[in-house]
Amino acid sequence: MFICRNCGYKTFKWLGKCPECGAWESFTEEVSSRKEREDPLPSLTNIRELSTIKEERFPTQIKEFDRVLGGGLIKGEVVLVGGEPGIGKSTLLLEVASQIAKNKKVLYVSAEESLAQINLRAKRLGIDAENLFLVNEDNLETLLLLFEKDFFLIIIDSIQVLKIASLGASLGSLVQIRESANILTETAKKKGVSLFIVGHVTKEGVISGPKALEHIVDCVIYFEGEKNSNFRILRAVKNRFGSLGEIGVFEMTSSGLKEVENPSSIFISGEGRSSSGSAVGCVLEGVRAILVEVQALVTRASFGMVRRKSVGFDFNRFSLILAMMEKRLGLNLGNQDVFVNVTGGIRIDDPCSDLALVLAVASSYEDFLVPRECVFIGEVGLSGELRRVYNISQRLSEIKRLGFLYAFIPQSNLEKLNLKEFLGLKLYGCRDIKEVISKVKNLKGKN
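The structure assignment produced for this chain is given below.
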């Protein structure tokens, strides 16, 4: 078997040029030596004995970070932190390291930046921890010796620049990154050391980033956000020790990252006035209910071909809803440009935001006002019906807490609710989108 040192492509014969990455003379022969198994048989454990094993978590004291991890770090856990360069991964992990260093010894391995650069960031963040140690090293064989020390947490920043001299592959290649991750994970498990691995994701989605490492580690979290926005979202996409879909919201300030305890405040505008083309919905991110504002602009097309643009909302679902509205509501959108935006830079995948999109588009097209005190929850079918919503009580509790007065929900949900829990919040149960729009117009007339 021959393997490309640059990308890991395998073939049964030697090739001068790699058909995968285009590198010349990069193939080396991989000889597999077979030997008789001398290891003893593995010991078996009855499933009933597992109940005696305690899973001890160590909180990082950063609530938003602990929420994403599932409550804190577990000894020997390997976490991959992905995100675009410059998004703030190093700042976040340095703050996490300083919090853990109050009780445990932490090692921060800076393979990219010099110690002087780390010092500047630490001064800006106001970090001064006695148990936090730094090292500027990119040789993996040397770093493995540090696992013998009594560190509780080791942070590798970043895996793209680590090198294994004996491997012979080019720096940053898929072979180098994947082999480094395998060795680091195996060593961390054996020594019982928690490990953070930083991996960059480029806008082009280069495969040598975290996407090639997700199956190796225990937890994968992504740090996301627009570079022209101060808000960052930490999202878990894989977690062997916790739930998926959890998010943590941070604000980037001059003194570092600050936790946002009420994310709904950044996803809905603070102006207390009604406006056409805007509706508030409630989505779930993990187990957290968040209110988001969906804005729509419907205007007559200036050219022969209409334009459709969606930011923060799935475009395919957006197209289905527009087609449904034309058929069920009789709206002539065929000659209209339709633009949709979810404020705050968040991307929503919860189908329960469909109703907010319908109200935003309809109000912009017909130019009627949607009261700011209203929140819309519901998945919309292609016949215009409102389908049952899950976790409705949790969503309504968040709506009531934030001071909204009216909530439009599917009739099937209203019939099974305990209305005493939501005193002060007027609930409207509707069966289809026509009924919702009619009630909103009547509500506006009463006001």
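Interim note for the steering committee: The chain has a mean pLDDT of 86. Residues 266-446 form a domain with the Ribosomal Protein S5; domain 2 fold (CATH 3.30.230.10).
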